[in-house]
Amino acid sequence: MKSRSHETPAADLPFDSTLLDSLLGDAGIDLLLVTSKHNIQYLTGGHRFFFHDYADAIGVSRYLPILIYPRGNAAASVYVANPMECYDRDLGKFWMTELDLSAWGTLDAARAAIAQIRRLGGTGRIGIEGSFFPADAYRSLCEAFPNRELVEAHYPLERLRARKTSAELELLRGASERVVEAMLAVFTGARPGMTKQDLVDTLRREEVNRGLVFEYCLVTAGTSLSRAPSDQVLQEGDILSLDSGGNYRGYIGDLCRMGILGEPDAELVEYLAEIETIQQAARRPIRAGTRGGEIFGEPRRLIARSANRGALDFVAHGMGVVSHEAPRLTDYAPQRYDGCDADRRLESGMVISIETTMTHRRRGFIKLEDTVVVTEGGCLAYGDGGRGWNRAGGP
Amino acid sequence: MKSRSHETPAADLPFDSTLLDSLLGDAGIDLLLVTSKHNIQYLTGGHRFFFHDYADAIGVSRYLPILIYPRGNAAASVYVANPMECYDRDLGKFWMTELDLSAWGTLDAARAAIAQIRRLGGTGRIGIEGSFFPADAYRSLCEAFPNRELVEAHYPLERLRARKTSAELELLRGASERVVEAMLAVFTGARPGMTKQDLVDTLRREEVNRGLVFEYCLVTAGTSLSRAPSDQVLQEGDILSLDSGGNYRGYIGDLCRMGILGEPDAELVEYLAEIETIQQAARRPIRAGTRGGEIFGEPRRLIARSANRGALDFVAHGMGVVSHEAPRLTDYAPQRYDGCDADRRLESGMVISIETTMTHRRRGFIKLEDTVVVTEGGCLAYGDGGRGWNRAGGP
Prior knowledge:
Chain A is of the alpha/beta class. Chain A is built from 10 helices and 16 strands. Helix content of chain A is about 30%, strand content about 25%.
């Protein structure tokens, strides 16, 4: 094991450690324990242990990576992880000089982390990701450090990720474009007699064949408002919605597009056009310096005077590594919500998902969801094609 | 909300509630809280919420389903889950009469579960899955019930799953066969100049195209012992190993097969034959009533007298919903390990993965991993093809 007197220059780190230290200072956190896959990915610069990419469970426990980060001393960081991550170590993937690759489960990971925390010393507050720290490991930590306060570290970590680098933006662009391409392929191949499950299975293949990890697909057909994959059989004339998350090297594409098994009538054309108008109105104020809440202004006005106002819903939220993350523009996920970015200024490199949904009792579920990135002068949309009624059989 | 006086007949449940009650009794658990995806899947008879199948994180927290099961009173069970699981409810997927589909994160899930536990009453011990219960929800639970003991519920749940039904066995057969078919397709298409990452990407597509969820692939090429996907370029003559987990409707196929870019020389043929001999020797004693540890007898004797004994390793472990589960035949995953199935009798319907690995410094990584099911008269192997040197370009 290398000495912790070795100092990794901040410039070598795959994240902004100065910003992280500042955010941790604001949160009163002296030692940070990172245990979620997405924050491990972010702080390691892209490492997500391939063996546990999908399933956490193994044996009598589960995979639990722990990145120990002492505020103001990134060079002393420690990574506790699985023995098979030695292959990634040998490939030079880790900037952390101290590695303990001995943990198969939560309790041995906790034991290793506790030993490392003792070695680092200190008596200050420990920040944990409370939703991503298992109870049994938490109990061990409490017993080992009865006099150290354990506090929530979600917010500094989320804030750290809020502005994306150009490399991250390229991955988000790649994710969005691939998801939309895959959806258009599914619409082209859709036929009466297929089921909603068939559509989802096809989308899964289309996404994976484009290099994505398929995350999920919300799907509707006909006038039904049920968005689960099911045995519902597609009928001639059905409208279809696909709202899917696909993961491209750790970054999410999350968009919604509409299809139809036939030709849309005037009413359907009008409804999708109304949704499109709201979506474009939401984009218009977006640029660095705009107050986040302004995104909602014109969409809300448009909905208030729409004949469909009871069926229309508009929402906007940050996205990137997690499907809903900073900037937080609504109180959509109120848990431990302490301050809304609606009153803060948008910053360049923030990525925002904007969604307009019509749940129409007679015509069914009609929606567009788009991904835009905030720039100095405006915004750019990723995967911005296929916004109309995509005909089965192709254009 | 329906009254809890309604009694679901045990015969309607997708699991053996009599066995579960007995196991919970042995563990001193009065009220069970199930929170892992795999045990939720098992107890609901196959439900795994599609929106969070891959990613747990959303917003400022994560998905946390909680199935509340009072010992001896299955009919009073409650399922706390996500609002979008209403679609699955409407499809009739849940046997639980009491549903609270309001939770987007861990703390609102905990809040809902606490209210339901209060309504159910009782003062006895609560069993939790300590590795799959988030720390923040755990803190809420401790505060709500300071006088109720919280104990580990892993073992009764694992034991409940140990013997597979015929329907489960069909899924495990389907998983194993598809994984092996996908591997053979990858070997057939392997060419010098491809990378290990290319092999894994191809295997992912081949598995998904066969209806599997790709979980992971450990991969080696040439004489390297590194099993991570990487940019290592395949060379003419390289041996290849693919050890992959693919998930078929909630059940895991996990096998290892060997390929080669060319023709194996006599030494390679001999080494794989030696591994095959050990694998077959391991199967021979397997039948209902055999002591679990007997599987290790002949393989250990064969290895002890092999010229390659320093390079050979044999292991066997139960599998099914989790890649390592009961029967536990070794102390491979020692965490909270309290009693080894090596001294218990095998039972029909148990599924065992048997693995022989040669890590040969000069020739590379050579391995077979097979899946067998214990029957009354012996054992059956699933996905048992492709056991030799699979040539690139096909047979």
